[in-house]
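Many introductory courses stop at the sequence. We go one step further.
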Amino acid sequence: MTDGSRPPRAPSPRTRVRRGADRADYDPGTVRRILDAAMIAHVGVVTDDGPLVLPMAYGRDDDTLYLHGAVANHLLASAADAEVCVTVTLVDGLVMARTPFHNSMNYRSVVVRGQAREVADPDERLRALRLITDHVVANWDHGRPVSDADLRRTRVAAVSLDEASAKIRTGDPVDEPEDVAGPWWAGVIPVETRFGAPRPAADLAPGVDPRPPFAVPDGVGR
């Protein structure tokens, strides 16, 4: 696929897909669409006591990925000006083959490699936090305004998407030709993310509308 707004990007030696290379997609538009559809990234960095990978919320601004956490967050503190690896995966189906050896999944995934940058500029930090907050459900403008104390307690890191690749699998199982004529079932079990009806908090203040003031995804999403 081609984004249209910019030319496809050649993969770096670190992001070139080697196993299943025919499923690789280096188009920046494909990478951005998968990042925009997913909700959780797994962020890996080598800390002072060994490798660490944690799930994190994120936001995207063009070709920059933003991460956030508490100032004391060990991973983000270690990632400041360090090499990181960020991965995102969406599972679209369980691929059940005629032999377990060929079972697989249909998926959309992204791997980002690069040097994390701690965001110090106040305006960029605020914009990044809005992007992270609004990434799944846009509710930044509908809660208590962010305070200076909130900002002092929060660390924000940025990672460029210059080194990023996508890998996508779709379709049916790929079985051995001699197995296709056999009596075993094969096919795909679709996997979907569903959003339920919002449930108001039990301690909602009197007079507050139990319906959220922001748009909530309806049914199947992402």
